[in-house]
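Illustration 12: Pectinesterase.
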Amino acid sequence: MTRVKKIAVFFLIGFCFCANAQNPFKNWSEIIRKSDAAWFGSEDAKRVAENVLLYQRDIGGWPKNIQMQQELTEKQKKDLIALKKTAVETTTDNGATCQEMLFMSRMYAQIKDERYKDSFLKGLNYLLEAQYANGGWPQFFPLKKGYYTHITYNDDSMVNIMNVIKSVANETDYYSIKPSKEIVEKCKKAFDKGIDCILKTQYKQNGILTAWCAQHDEVTLKPANARAFELASLSGYESAKIVLLLMSIDKPSREIVIAVKSAVEWFEKTKITNLEEKRVLNDAGKIVEKKMIPAVNAAPIWARFMDLETNEPFFCDRDGIRKKSLDQIGAERRNGYSWYSDAPKEVLKKFPDWAVRNGTKVGATEKKNVNYITVAQDGSGDFSKIQDAVYATPAFPYEKVTIFIKNGIYNEKVRIPEWNNNVILKGESKENTIITFDDNFSKIGLGRNSTFYTYTLLVEGDDFTASNLTIKNTSGEHGQAIALSVVANHAKIINCNLLGNQDTLYLSGKDSKQYFKDCYIEGTTDFIFGGATALFENCTIHSIKSSYITAASTPEGTAFGFVFKNCKLTANPDAKDVYLGRPWRVYAKTVFINCEMGKQIKPEGWENWSKPEAEKKAFYAEYNCTGEGFQPSKRVGWSHQLSKKEASQYSIENILKDKTVNWYLN
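Figure caption equivalent — predicted structure in C-alpha cell form:
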C-alpha cells in the first residue's frame, strides 16, 4: 500500500469523540444541521472550518465518514495537504460533499471569509462535473471501479446532490453563497437531466410503473447489484426520498405526476402492517439483536429490498443468497443493516395536499367517490367552485369522472389539465348553469399570443365531455376573448351555449378530433377558429355582427377541418354581411352540409384574408344547404359545391374516426 493510500485509510476511520465541549452534538452531520446559526461565527466553528478546508480535495469533493470536528495534529494536517491533489475517496455517499457544502454556507453567512465561498463553489463544480450525460451520478468521482460507477440512489446520494443543485438553480436563500448566473444555468440543466434520469429509471412491472432500485446500471439504466447482500431490487427506503424530490417540483410535468402517482400506489400496495421490529440494545446502546414480531394493525413499514417482479421482501447475508425472513441471515448483517424503513410514510402523508395542488386527487374526496363529484354554490355539494372539483379528480383515471354542476353563475376561470382526462362536466341545466369570465386580449397583456390566455374554460385533458352548460366570455367587444378553448383529443360538447364576441371558440391540438352537438354558438369575428378536426351537428351558429364565422387553420394533409351538418346559421338584425369563413392558415378546410343559411350570409360566401395562395390550397365547400344565404351560383370561384358522392364521405364515422373506435358515441 502506498503512503498516500495509507494516509487516506487512516482518515477514513475517523474519531468517535468531539473536541468541541461547547457543542452538544457528537456526530459531524448533527453539528452542521443542528447547531445554532450564531455558533458558526464562533472561534470553535472557525477551528472546525479549517479542518473542513483541509479535507476538501482540489477537485472539490470530500471523503465520507469523517468526524471533521476532531482536533488534528500537525502531522495529520501535513498528510491532508498531501492528499489534496489526489482526489482519493471523494464521494457523495453517506452525505459527503453535500453536507460539507452546507457547513461552508453556514460559515459564510456569519463570517465573510472568501475561502468558505470558494470551497462551496468548488464543491458545486465537483457535483456538476460528476454527473453522467444521462443525468445520473455515480457514488464516487473520479470513478472508482466496481458497483460504485452505478447511478446511485443508495442512502439518498443522488437525491442529496439534486437538492443542492435545485436550491442553486431556483436561486433560493437556503445557501448564503450566490453563484454566477452561468453556474445557475448549469444547475438548471443538470437538475432537468437528473429528473429525466429518475423518470427513465422508474421500474415497470408488467408495464406498470412502480419504484426504484438503490442502484441502476449507468449504461442500461436497469436495476443493478451493489455489495453481495445488496441485490438488484425495488427499494422501500430509497424510493421515498426520490418521490419527495419529485413532489417538491413546482408545476410538475405530466410525466412527473404519473411517476409520483404510480409510486404512491406502489407504496400503498407494498406496505407491511402485520410486523414490528424489536431491537435489543447493550449497555452502550448498540444493537445486539433485531427481531420481527407479528402484530395487528402495526404502523406501516416497508422492506428495503423487494423482488423486482413479485414485490416480496428478501434478505441477504454476505454470501449473496436470498432469504425470505430476517431471522434466516447471520447476526452481523441482521443487526448491522437497515432492512426495514418507514420513510414512505412521509410521502403518503404529503401526497393528498400535493395532489390537490397538482390536479391528481384528494384523499377526502377519493374515500367518498372520486368518480362523481358535485359542485354547488350553496355548499350542498363537495365543492363550491368548479376548479376545486377539477383539482380533486384523479390523474389519468381508468374510468370517467363526472363533475356535476348545480345551477348557478360560476364566475371563475377553469382549466382541465392534460392529466385530468376522462372528465365529464355536466350542468344541471343549460340555461342556468353558467361558467363565466371576462378576460380579453388587452386585459391579459402578454404580447401577441395573449388571445390563447383569455379562455373562460380551457380543456387540455383528452376524452372530455361537457353538457348542459353555458360557457361565456363577458368581456364584450374588446378584441379577442375566448369562451371555450379545446386543445384536447376526443372532446364532446353536447347541448351547451358558447357565448362571446371575437374568437368565442378555439379548437386545436395535434390530430385532435372534436364533436359539437345541439349547441348554440355566437360571436362576432372568427368566432370558431383553430386547427382541429371538428364536427358540428344540429347546432345554431349565430352572428352578432357583420364579420366572419370561421377562421380555420387546418394542418396540411388533414382530411377534414371544420364540418357543419344540419346546422342553422342565424344573426342579429344588424348583421347583414357575414362570411362563412376565411383562412387563418392557407390549408384551411371548412364545409357546410344540409345547413340552413339566413340572409346575412354574403353571396360570395368566403374570403381569402389577403392570402391569394389560399385560393389554391384552402378547401371551402357546401352541399344541399337551404335559406336565403345559400347562393351557390354566386360563391367565389375557388370554393366548391360537393356532389352527392363527395358529400357522402362526410359521415360522422369518417370525420371523427381514429384508433379509438366510436369514441364520439360513448
